[in-house]
């Protein structure tokens, strides 16, 4: 291989490593966001459960326009 080809490969490798790091950072951020959203859904689900247990008569009520 000539020197230019080696330099070209090294540049490509450097760009790929940079891209891989950016993708890894994005994945970590998304995993954190998913965890936060899962926690929020869990809390909301518990609140709904508590409300339905506190007011069982409201579970089957339909609004007047039905």
Q: If you had to describe this structure to a student in words, what would you say it looks like?
A:
By secondary structure, the chain is an all-alpha fold. It has one domain (3-54). Helix content is 79%, strand content 0%. The protein is built from one helix and no strands. The protein has one helix at residues 3-54. The longest helix is centred in the middle third of the chain and has 52 residues, at 3-54.
Fold topology:
Elements: H1 3-54
Provide a short characterization of the protein structure.
The chain has one helix and no strands. It is mainly α and 66 residues long.
Keywords for this structure?
mainly alpha; single chain; 66 residues; 79% helix
Low-confidence stretches: none
Would you tell me the overall average pLDDT?
91
SSE arrangement, N to C = H
Total discrete domains: 1
Integer-rounded radius of gyration: 27 Å
Distance between the termini: 78 Å
**What's the overall geometry?**
rod-shaped
Strands, count: 0
Structural class: mainly alpha
Total helices: the number is 1
Share of residues in helices: over 70%
Major sheet details: none
- Indicate the proportion of strand residues: under 5%
């Amino acid at each position: 291989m000539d020197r230019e080809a080696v330099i070209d490969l090294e540049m490509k490798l450097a760009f790929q490593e940079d891209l891989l790091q950016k993708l890894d950072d994005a994945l970590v951020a998304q995993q954190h966001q998913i965890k936060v959203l899962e926690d929020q859904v869990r809390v909301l689900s518990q609140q709904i459960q508590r409300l339905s247990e506190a007011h069982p008569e409201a579970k089957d009520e339909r609004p007047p326009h039905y």
